[in-house]
Design brief:
The chain is α/β, with parallel strands linked by helices. Among the domains are: 1-24 and 224-307, no CATH class; 31-40 and 47-221, Rossmann fold, CATH 3.40.50; 309-403; 623-693. Helix content is 60%, strand content 6%. Strand 1 and strand 2 (88-90) form a beta hairpin. The two termini are 65 Å apart.
């Protein structure tokens, strides 16, 4: 954390209460529960049981944050109104709320904390907890209530368990006292529907991994913790909160980031640190080398949530595998992708590279939706419908990967790289393709990580690295592009040899990157080596030779080495005229480069016919109104202005400006900027006229 003192201040100010604190001490949490206290004993029917409280868990003394979510629960469940005497009373209408999210995200803990806070404030007379992991456990929970807490009139000598459960539901529907009914782990919402009271003076709260709860309840999704909340939880669970130094707060924050702010993982980490008395630094080092073992361990004193992170998700994985094996393979695939904004078309367009079951499911729209349904059922992935993307938690990826042998991991990594190479645009320098490049950028960069981690050296790996590097370089992201270019070069040298044309392409890419940064000494030998390879392998008149000659000439020109640059430009022009023709756009590029060199040297008479020829080629190729033509007009006008030929220059500037006005919609946000750029030379030229003798 960049400011330990600020972090410490936040953590101290946001301490949560522990068991036994008075109601008034909760003021910091901003929880506004609006229920009346339970009715006095004198008004209670003789048949009324004592207040029911059957929560199976104690209050968690380490519960941290979640105030906003608790507030939302309160706002939905605590609907209230005032009677004529201005005293608060609960509306006689059953409210339903579902807490959804990934296993281990803290749904049960939130429900427990809500129940305790509500009891402290006297919101409900009865609080009933139902284990909804299966229908058998739902029935068992209801039967236990009839045996221990409910009035005898509810049972009426009944022994049939389903009828007993129905009797409890009926009693709740008639009960005049406010009640809270919690169904925990209701991962199959349809299964619990018959057991939900249809009315009554109560609230129903579900915790479920299912994202779709339909009409059963309003849902709120639990996300991972914020950075400061997560740091606070870890410090408190490790029993280090009171005396943590600034450095320890920093180190705890590093663990929060490494565990991707996941509550159960932070709780496990804190328990381990407490039990072993190791430092935060030691734990982080251990996690990076023994991740699988640590994610599988649960603290010895855990009573509220017995499963570890790994066990929690392994149970979900197994259920997915049993119901839809293709969905299990999709989860494995997603574990090797960048976790956020995974384009769905990557999964479908890359189908050729997936195993048979997944290949069939990704090419069949109905089967694809069935896979999504199964994974969403356990909140193992999230789906953004509008963007057509998926996301997966990083620890879900980690646990899934740790289940695989090393060779299986390598196979998935290769499949992902081949698929990304297929979908990433072939010409990332093309501005029109930039949105598509950006959509796949995270996945392409993830490929770089896979290539490094698994030491992959096949051709497609170099290909995806090269094209990703070109896109990054086009956006001046040189530091990001360089390692990709370097690895692509290394792969091609190893797989194809040091003298292969593709190796020359990688050399050229890296040289251009260095040239763009002014690293001329690093760029020159790479340019020269690429030129030599192409001359040997492709011949002295190949079009790629012209590219290398142009690039090396540009390097010399930038350094003011005009005598070295000129013959290279001339040779490149000669190759393109012979191989591509005198009217090809690439030939025009060489003419323009040579003209620019002459212009910089003051050789205006040599530059002028070249620029005029460039203008004619581009008009014939693109049309008189094309943006490329406006660039040609501008270049020629600059030459005339340098010669003092103001009338000729002004005519060309005006022509370029007119084309730009016609091309750009006046409402376009860049229109004014572009027009100002084209108008500026005219204003400057007017000043030159006035100053000339």
């Amino acid at each position: 954390m960049s400011d330990p003192e600020e972090a410490r201040k936040y953590l101290v100010e946001n301490q949560q209460p522990v068991i036994g604190q008075a109601v008034g001490e909760y003021a910091h949490a901003h929880i506004h529960l609006h229920y009346n206290a339970p009715a006095p004993a004198a008004s209670v029917s003789s048949d009324l049981p004592t207040p029911i409280w059957n929560l199976p868990f104690p209050r968690n003394p380490h519960f941290t944050g979640r105030d906003e979510l608790l507030e939302r629960l309160d706002q939905h469940l605590a609907t209230a109104s005032y009677d004529d005497q201005r005293t608060m009373r609960r509306v006689a209408l059953t409210q339903r709320q579902a807490i959804t999210g990934l296993g281990g995200i803290g749904k049960t803990q939130i429900a427990v904390e809500y129940a305790f806070r509500s009891r402290d404030l006297g919101c409900y007379t009865h609080t009933l907890w139902i284990n909804a992991a299966s229908e058998e456990q739902v029935i068992a929970s209801f039967v236990e209530l009839t045996a221990d807490a409910l009035p005898a009139s509810v049972m009426q000598g009944e022994t049939d368990q389903r009828k007993l459960a129905a009797a409890v539901r009926s009693w709740l529907e008639r009960c005049e006292q406010p009640w809270l009914l919690i169904f925990d782990n209701a991962d199959d919402p349809s299964m619990i529907e018959p057991y939900l009271p249809r009315g009554g003076n109560g609230s129903i709260l579900l915790t479920t991994r299912a994202r779709a709860v339909g009409s059963l309840a309003t849902s709120v999704e639990v996300e991972t913790m914020g950075f400061l909340e997560g740091t606070q939880l870890l410090l408190r669970r490790a029993q280090r909160f009171e005396h943590a130094s600034d450095e320890e707060i920093n180190q705890a924050g590093n663990i929060v980031v490494e565990l991707d702010h996941f509550p159960l993982a932070l709780d496990q980490a804190g328990a381990y640190i407490e039990e072993t008395q190791c430092s935060f630094v030691d734990y982080l080092d251990l996690y990076r080398t023994h991740r699988k073992a640590l994610l599988a361990q649960r603290g010895m004193l855990a009573t509220d949530y017995l499963h570890s992170v790994a066990t929690t998700w392994l149970l979900s994985f197994q259920k997915v595998q049993q119901v839809n094996p293709a969905a299990a393979e999709l989860l494995e695939l997603c574990s090797f992708l960048a976790p956020d904004r995974i384009p769905e078309e990557l999964l479908t367009d890359g189908a050729d590279y997936w195993p048979a079951l997944l290949q069939q499911a990704t090419t069949d729209p109905f089967a694809f939706q069935q896979m999504m349904k199964e994974l969403l059922k356990y909140s193992l992935v999230k789906r953004l419908v509008e963007d057509r993307t998926l996301s997966i938690h990083r620890l879900v990826q980690a646990v899934q990967m740790d289940m695989m042998e090393q060779e299986e991991q390598r196979q998935w990594a290769k499949r992902v790289i081949r698929a990304v190479d297929k979908v990433f645009p072939d010409h990332p320098q093309d501005i029109a393709l930039w949105p598509q490049c950006l959509r796949y950028l995270d996945q392409a960069q993830a490929c770089h990580i896979l290539i490094e981690h698994y030491r992959l050296t096949f051709a497609k790996a170099a290909s995806v690295l090269s094209r990703t590097g070109l896109y990054l370089k086009s956006h001046a992201l040189y530091a990001l592009a360089e390692p990709l270019y370097q690895r692509a070069l290394s792969i091609r040298e190893r797989q194809l040899g040091p003298d292969h044309p593709d190796t020359a392409q990688s050399l050229n890419n890296l040289a251009v990157l260095y040239w763009s940064q002014g690293k001329y000494e690093q760029a020159e030998p790479l340019y020269q080596r690429a030129l030599s390879i192409r001359e040997q392998q492709l011949g002295p008149d190949h079009p790629n030779m012209a590219t290398s000659l142009n690039n090396l000439a540009a390097l010399y020109r930038t350094q003011g080495k005009y005598e070295q640059a000129e013959p290279l430009y001339q040779r490149a022009l000669s190759i393109r005229e012979r191989q591509l023709g005198p009217d090809h756009p690439d030939t025009a590029q060489s003419l323009n480069n040579l003209a620019g060199l002459y212009h910089e040297q003051g050789k205006y008479e040599q530059a002028e016919p070249l620029l005029q020829r460039v203008l004619m080629i581009d008009i014939n190729v693109y049309g008189a109104e094309h943006p490329e033509v406006t660039t040609d007009l501008n270049n020629l006008a600059e030459l005339y202005r340098a010669q003092g030929k103001y009338s000729e220059a002004e005519s060309l500037y005006q022509r370029a400006l007119l084309i730009r006005k016609q091309q750009l919609d006046s409402g376009h946000p860049t229109t004014q900027t572009v027009l100002e750029n084209y108008s500026s030379p005219l204003q400057t030229m007017g000043q030159d006229k006035q100053q000339s003798p």
